[in-house]
Amino acid sequence: MEWTFIGRLALAALLGGIIGFDREYRAKEAGLRTHFLVALGSALFMIVSMYGLGGVGDPGRIAAQVVTGIGFIGAGSIMIHKQFVRGLTTASGLWATAGIGLAAGAGMYWIGVAAMVLTLAGLELSTLVLGSIGMHTAQIVFATTDKENLTRVMAEIHERKHTLVSYETTHEVVGNGELFRVTMVVKTHHAADHTHLFQFIQALPQLTLEKME
């Protein structure tokens, strides 16, 4: 019986790890280790609730508590910056991974495998299908000692007909000059526009591009 339980744990960890590897490759907030542990922990809770309490207790209640607990982890992966929200897909992926772990822990092997395949399909196929249509969002953070660079970047955004979702700038005195740090969220029509905007900003003098994603 113990080897059966170990097999369930191993399957849950494997399925969660596969999803996590995809997320890690995409450089998302939650990666391989997070999904691996979420699936493994969910399977363990299910096994303990079904077989480790001497028949006392309701496995369904344990599963419900797992789902609730995953909500806290998922909330930690969601970041909000003005009108720009990141991490919703990652949080949903963690939620689905917990369900996969519960299925594996309950002995529903093929249900777990099917859910993993469908989860990956939803993540990857949607990226491929929707990647060529709709608006694409990018968060850009850069610092510059030349105030004119702010005007140059804004002019490029308007010339390319991108949509500026949010814009925030701070400045501080550095030596005899000023350092301007800008955080903006931009929506573009094509994924290739991100590359062009990245190259344009990076080529500006006296400017450091700190983040663009």
What does this structure look like?
The protein contains seven helices and six strands. With 213 residues, it is α+β, with helices and mostly antiparallel strands. It has two domains: 129 residues, no CATH class; 77 residues, 2-Layer Sandwich (Alpha-Beta Plaits). Helix 1 packs antiparallel against helix 2. It is a multi-pass membrane protein. It holds the Pfam family MgtC. It is found in: Cell membrane. Belongs to the MgtC/SapB family.
List the helices and strands and how they pair.
Blueprint: H1 2-25, H2 32-51, H3 59-76, E1 79-81, E2 84-86, H4 88-105, H5 109-130, E3 136-144, H6 148-159, E4 163-174, E5 177-188, H7 191-202, E6 207-212
Antiparallel strand pairs: 1-2, 3-5, 3-6, 4-5
Helix pairs in contact: 1-2, 1-4, 1-5, 2-3, 2-4, 3-4, 4-5
Membrane topology: Multi-pass membrane protein
Family: Belongs to the MgtC/SapB family.
Main location: membrane
